[in-house]
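Title: Prediction job returns without error message
Component: structure pipeline
Severity: low
Priority: P3
Assignee: unassigned

Description:
Job completed but the reporter wants confirmation the result is attached to the right record. Sequence as submitted:
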Amino acid sequence: MITNSMISPVNLVSNMNTVQPKATPAEATESFASFLKTAIDGVAAQEQNVHNVNDQFLIGEVDENKVVIAAMQAELSLSLTGQIRNKVVEAYQEIMRMQI
């Protein structure tokens, strides 16, 4: 089942505002890296949850609505992760095109 500790798309976006404004570059990098790791772990946990709900459905413990809901939540989280990755790559490419 989904727990409150998992990262949902809404929590992922709302947690982005928690970066400290006066961090050193090393602290900011570490903070960003830990944020990304937490977010990706949350997406992986939602994928595992879909597998668990599917297994429960196969033995008759849950109905198909819970399977569909779990699958859609995992799909949305994965889609958001892909969108964020695309934006990060786009930002990196833009920085690389800058002339110093």
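Comment from assignee: result matches the submitted record. The radius of gyration is 17 Å.
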